[in-house]
Design a protein that fits this description.
The chain is built from twelve helices and 17 strands. By secondary structure, it is α/β, with parallel strands linked by helices. The structure holds zinc ion (2 copies). Residues 65, 67, 94-95, 187-188 line the site of one zinc ion.
């Protein structure tokens, strides 16, 4: 099969001592400290065969994620910027949809021909976090599109338990193509769902809400807030294209934080009460944390989803006097997240399609990558077939 493969050189930084397990498996826990000189090319790989508990998916759609882009950025010494779990050579792509074409001998809940999306985090099931039902913190985590070959290929092998049918979305879309588009966009919504409802414990319908950042996670946040009863959704985003997308996804207003002071706008738009819920989806903590601190409501919640390898100072006083809650969230595994997001899509409560701003054929992944690097897009999808 044809696949878009990344490769890099194993060369741990002088101050990074890989563990025995990392050395043995060549699976680096901190990719940015080990891998340098990334290359990418189309290659022919063996078409995967299923193990007894696996399925093989014929790929239809795959999206680029913010974390994927960090693989293609390097520092002055040539090390990749992605700080997480990595092994090379590898095939990226964890936001995907396709059709099941083969199932292992033990697989019963999913059948050949089923259109599916996948849960990308593959938990071990036996470590302490897994045993207390916290799969997002699994100590032996594998991730499809990171440590297991992902969706930038004609076929993908995943454990059957990580597959979710998207067939229920079919009545909401105009074509089979749109069904796979929606399927590939489930993942960013699951990240938002996890942060809002699992990690932060939700919000009250009628809440005044704010989203910092209008990339895919910010846009998915807007749609989720709208579906779940926010009374007002304000977005702060620097690019005009993404501000327009935020309005399309259901925001009440979108502002450029370079030309207005976010905390002043929030206070003015919330009767001076502050926002009940603020979401950081910009990965720009130096700017967003102080703005959120200064415009949080009494008992308000600040939910950080964006990732930013920056040290920032927090002034706790305004948070403390309002008994505000700061939640830092990651992941999307387990906890009923995938089936609930799929139900919301099947019911038409959330529609991810307006987020899609470009589609490229499988042979043009490098061009899609270049387009992704220029900010301003919503979601760029690759049409694998
Ligand atoms: Zn993603
Ligand atoms: Zn585990």
């Amino acid at each position: 099969m044809k696949a878009f493969v990344l490769d890099a050189t194993w060369d741990p930084r002088p101050d990074y001592r890989p563990s025995a397990v990392e050395l043995e498996t060549r699976r680096a826990l901190v990719g940015s400290s080990v891998w340098r000189h990334l290359t990418s090319s189309y290659r022919t790989l063996d078409t995967p065969k299923p193990g007894p508990d696996d399925v093989i998916i014929k790929q239809r759609r795959v999206g680029f994620c913010g974390s994927d882009m960090h693989f293609f950025e390097s520092d002055a010494d040539g090390y990749i910027k992605y700080p997480g779990l990595t092994r090379f050579p590898s095939v990226l792509g964890h936001e995907l949809a396709g059709d099941v074409v083969e199932v292992g001998a033990n697989v019963t809940h999913i059948k050949v021909g089923e259109p599916v999306t996948i849960e990308d985090m593959v938990r071990c099931g036996t470590c302490f976090p897994c045993r207390i039902n916290q799969p997002n913190f699994c100590e032996n985590l594998d991730e499809v599109g990171f440590s297991i070959n992902g969706g930038f290929a004609e076929y993908v092998r995943v454990p059957a338990r990580n597959c979710w049918s998207i067939a229920a979305i079919r009545p909401r879309v105009a074509s089979e193509g749109e069904l796979y588009d929606c399927g590939a966009l489930v993942e960013p919504f699951t990240v938002v769902y996890n942060a809002l409802f699992i990690a932060a414990g939700g919000f009250q319908p009628g809440a005044y809400t704010v989203v910092h950042g209008g990339g895919p996670i910010g846009l998915a946040s807007v749609a989720m807030l709208r579906a779940c009863g926010a009374a007002k959704i304000l977005v702060f985003e620097v690019t005009p294209q993404r501000r327009a997308l935020a309005l399309k996804m259901g925001a009440d207003a979108a502002y450029d934080p370079k030309t207005v002071k976010a905390e002043e706008v929030v206070m003015a738009e919330t009767e001076g009460l502050g926002a009940d819920l603020q979401i950081e989806a910009a990965g720009a903590f130096v700017h967003t944390i102080p703005a959120m601190e200064n415009s949080v409501s009494l008992l308000g919640k600040i939910v950080v989803i964006g990732r930013d390898a920056a040290r920032v100072s927090i002034y706790p006083e305004p948070l403390q006097v309002k008994r505000a809650i700061l939640v830092l969230a990651k992941g999307n595994a387990g906890m009923g997240i995938y089936p609930n997001v799929l139900r919301l899509m099947a019911a038409g409560r959330i529609d991810p399609r307006p987020m899609i701003t470009a589609k490229y054929p499988f042979g043009q992944i490098p061009a899609a990558l270049d387009a992704s690097k220029a900010r301003g897009h919503g979601k760029i999808l690759i049409d694998v077939a």
